[in-house]
Amino acid sequence: MQSITILGATGSIGKSTLAVISEHPQRFNLFAVTAHANVAEMLSICARFNPTYAVMVDEQAGIALRQQLLEQRSSTAVLIGPAALLDVASASEVDTVMAAIVGAAGLLPTLAAVNAGKRILLANKEALVMSGQLFMDAVARSGAELLPIDSEHNAIFQCLPTAAQQALGQADLAAHGVSKILLTGSGGPFRELPLAELAQQTPAAACAHPNWSMGQKISVDSATMLNKGLEYIEARWLFNCQREQLEVVVHPQSVIHSMVSFTDGSVIAQLGQPDMRTPIAYGLSYPTRISSGVAALDFSQLSQLTFSTAEAARYPCLALAIEACWQGQAATTMLNAANEIAVEAFLGTQIGFTAIAEICDRVLNEIAVIPVSSIDDVIAIDQQARQVAQRWVEHYRLC
Ligand code: NAD
Ligand code: MG
């Protein structure tokens, strides 16, 4: 029995993880689930899975959940507040932690799991984007086992030789015969929209991803392609890439989840349905395979696979992220923070769609890039960038 904590159990990745676990009750035991404030969803998870702990970050929601579970005579104990996230991520009873909180809020709980030497199923890309080298160093120090869940990184991981998989973040790609990592992305819902119409796009339109069903924040990031930018930074750390070893390819069908190009001219790709249960099942059972509930691809139904490069004018956020990646961790932390503030303002209809990239650019230009040597440094830069971004939200606020 593998004992599991799901950080962000009420979200899109959290629910897909629960779906895979529910197919294998003899293999997986749910130790803890966490959420920000969704009481109804947590009640339903506790009724179905009976975890030992349920953590609510929001205090009022935590009190309400505790009350209702007591009334239902549930044996699940409720813990309240952000510190409890760290406790259930690092508890000695836990083998595997699914890191699926969205955004910077996932950083400290994910690091707690890393420092406790757990198997980490990493969906929360923002944690790695912010803490980069510090995160990978902590993995190496603690002996934690890091498995990428983001579909592209999971695909790349599957395509790599076993020796490179086992030295994740440390392996010299060239020494393993790898010449390039090709990160694929669909281009999002606005790939073919006339550029002049981008500024008027609504949150509903931005969240209507053509292939994937995901949380709101990552859906907006897919529309700006900052998601691919964050993934580029994520790949740089996970696979220890040099600049010339990493490339973004637009592939609208999302059938190929990413590829690895080798020095002998071979290119290995991982293909599948756009369904996160596949990478989640892979992470849960690595190095063996279990069923995920996802059907295999039906090649008689696939008409074509197409590829192109990302248009610079359509996706300014992607170029900002690639630049930030090679500037260093202060820049990637700032970009991530600015984007979180801008996306939240866009989802709240305070700013227009194209203001997201402008706010990210303003923040990157305004704050000096300093060396980062600790998680405290990362958190300080994150906070500073949020304040500056908030000021720019006021500047771009829609009348
Ligand atoms: P989501 O919005 O659906 O769910 C987010 C989860 O985080 C929820 O359980 C929520 O309660 C919790 N949460 C939100 N704010 C919190 C806070 N301040 N403190 C503690 N918990 C908080 O998001 P998602 O789409 O499931 O994405 C989760 C992560 O996985 C993101 O980092 C995303 O980039 C990554 N990811 C998602 C997908 C996908 O298909 N959804 C694919 C690849 C990577
Ligand atoms: Mg992805």
TrEMBL record:
Entry-linked Pfam families: DXP_redisom_C, DXP_reductoisom, DXPR_C
Gene3D superfamilies reported for this sequence: 1.10.1740.10, NAD(P)-binding Rossmann-like Domain
UniProt keyword terms in alphabetical order: Isoprene biosynthesis, Magnesium, Manganese, Metal-binding, NADP, Oxidoreductase
Record-listed NADPH binding positions: T10, G11, S12, I13, N38, N124, E126, G215
Keyword Iron listed: no
GO molecular function: 1-deoxy-D-xylulose-5-phosphate reductoisomerase activity
All copies of domain 1-deoxy-D-xylulose 5-phosphate reductoisomerase N-terminal, residue ranges: 4-132
Residues involved in Mn(2+) binding: D150, E152, E231
Biological pathway: Isoprenoid biosynthesis; isopentenyl diphosphate biosynthesis via DXP pathway; isopentenyl diphosphate from 1-deoxy-D-xylulose 5-phosphate: step 1/6
Catalytic reaction equation(s): 2-C-methyl-D-erythritol 4-phosphate + NADP(+) = 1-deoxy-D-xylulose 5-phosphate + NADPH + H(+)
Function text: Catalyzes the NADPH-dependent rearrangement and reduction of 1-deoxy-D-xylulose-5-phosphate (DXP) to 2-C-methyl-D-erythritol 4-phosphate (MEP).
Name of protein: 1-deoxy-D-xylulose 5-phosphate reductoisomerase
Organism ancestry: Bacteria, Pseudomonadati, Pseudomonadota, Gammaproteobacteria, Alteromonadales
Gene name linked to the record: ispC
